[in-house]
Design a protein that fits this description.
By secondary structure, this protein is of the alpha+beta class. It folds into 2 domains: 1-96; 97-171, no CATH class. The protein has 7 helices and 8 strands. It has helices at 4-19, 32-47, 54-59, 74-90, 99-109, 122-137, 157-166; strands at residues 22-23, 29-31, 64-65, 71-73, 115-116, 119-120, 150-151, 154-155. Helix 1 (4-19) packs antiparallel against helix 4 and helix 5 packs antiparallel against helix 6 (122-137). The longest helix is centred in the middle third of the chain and has 17 residues, at 74-90.
Length: 171
Amino acid sequence: MVDDSVKSLAGWLTDEHARLVKARFGLRRYVAQDVDAFVADAVARLGLAEPPEPSWVRAVLFRTVTDLRVGYDVRAVDALLDELAARLVATGGGPDLDPRAAEMISLVEGARFRRSRVGYDYKEVDVYLAEVAGALARGHRPGPAPTFTVTRRGYDRRDVDAFLQGQRFTA
């Protein structure tokens, strides 16, 4: 029999997912199909009384879209995932993150860089930072920063380099 708290968590997640608004415009959006698939998987796990670990929720990576394709607002989805992870901890779904790792993940996810006519490729930097956040959420130390491609338009190299040199990514 499925535990009532886990069953209610599945219902809550389904309701909150339904409230997310799909949009074609905005700075950064997660690909809608990726978010929908993750939520369906999480609800299925909850329905089987096999609640996912909070670290699994925090480690999920979604592709981002900036063109006219439909997507969900990054901040709204991240807030939903944070709340889901917190509720999983409250229902005994596993240990929460080490506070230092949670702080580091927040810092990485909040990183913003100036744009430059010549800079590091946007996608490469974003993918690396997502990998760093995922590794920290799983309790692992992230790998070293790759050598980013310099492109005509990208993130300011000095900003990215200063951010990466100022961080010690430890879990």
